[in-house]
Amino acid sequence: MTATLEQNVASLEAPAPSFRASVSEPDAIRVLLIEEGTRGFLTDELSKQGFAVRKIASLPSEPDAVSDADVIVLHCDRAKISSIELLVKLHRQGFDVPVVVLTGEPLPAHECLALDKGAVDVICKSRGPDVLARRLMGVVKTIRRRDRPESGRHMKCGKLALRADVSRAYWKDVDVGLTLGEYNIVHLLVSNAGRYVTYRAIYDRLTYEGFIAGSGADGYRANVRSAIRRVRNKFRACDLDFDEIENYQAFGYCWKKPA
């Protein structure tokens, strides 16, 4: 019987392989991939895109496996409780490395539980390695921006509270359940409350500056509209009267300035 991730935590003694990448830049993003089995697909795909990847089957006792990473990818074939327990274990031990859960079954209940237990994002692996790579870049970029001295760790705007240390948004003290990308959008809008933010600026926060997607030069606008729709729906799940996000057609969106 194959051991679970949590069962392997205490039993793995062999040293983990070093970070491997197809490029030698010293500032390559270091990804710790925790994945059961001997599959090497993700390691190879991420390495080709410039990530320095270190793959292990479980969390070893040596703390450097986590502390040396910029981001952790926890790859699960299904919604296993061991993945949630590992998230809890990481945070209980004081590790603040962001964790992304990659799963083939992104059930809403499992996604919410993973986010509640400390994951910064939950991604369906059917989205493919390119999407995963972009999301990992976004995670690390956000964390590095957050760690700058001038960046505030908390922000309040009316009934909204943002906690940058865990990338969580609270409406009337209730966690809205935003993904990292959605949180980044809300943070951008709230930082410019009362002013409209362009579609391009919002999409840059989701990906990176100048990234092209969709059909035509402005194809990314459909992605932005979908993202805003998801954000609104999550806020309305907490408050049916939520209407803080306004749209200026063909230009962008605005978070209302508190009265």
> Strands across the major sheet, in which order?
2-1-3-4-5
Q: List low-pLDDT spans.
A: 1-17, 21-26, 148-152
Structural class: alpha/beta
| Termini separation | 61 Å
Q: State the helical fraction.
A: 25-40%
Proportion in β-strands: 15-25%
Measured on Cα atoms, how large is the radius of gyration? 19 Å
* Helical segment count: 9
Secondary structure tally: strands = 12
Order of helices and strands: HEHEHEHEHEHEEEEHEHHEE
Q: Describe the biggest sheet?
A: 5 strands, parallel
User: What would the average pLDDT be, to the nearest integer?
Assistant: 76
Shape: globular
Provide the fold topology.
Layout: H1 5-11, E1 30-35, H2 41-48, E2 52-56, H3 64-67, E3 71-76, H4 81-92, E4 99-103, H5 108-116, E5 121-124, H6 129-146, E6 154-157, E7 160-163, E8 168-171, E9 174-175, H7 180-191, E10 197-198, H8 199-206, H9 220-238, E11 245-248, E12 252-255
Parallel strand pairs: 1-2, 1-3, 3-4, 4-5
Antiparallel strand pairs: 6-7, 7-8, 8-9, 10-12, 11-12
Helix pairs in contact: 7-8, 8-9
Structural notes for this entry:
The protein is α/β, with parallel strands linked by helices and 259 residues long. The protein is built from 9 helices and 12 strands. The longest helix is centred in the last third of the chain and has 19 residues, at 220-238. The chain is globular, with a radius of gyration of 19 Å. The N and C termini lie far apart (61 Å).
Summarize the structure.
With 259 residues, the chain is of the alpha/beta class. It has nine helices and twelve strands. Helix 7 packs across helix 8.
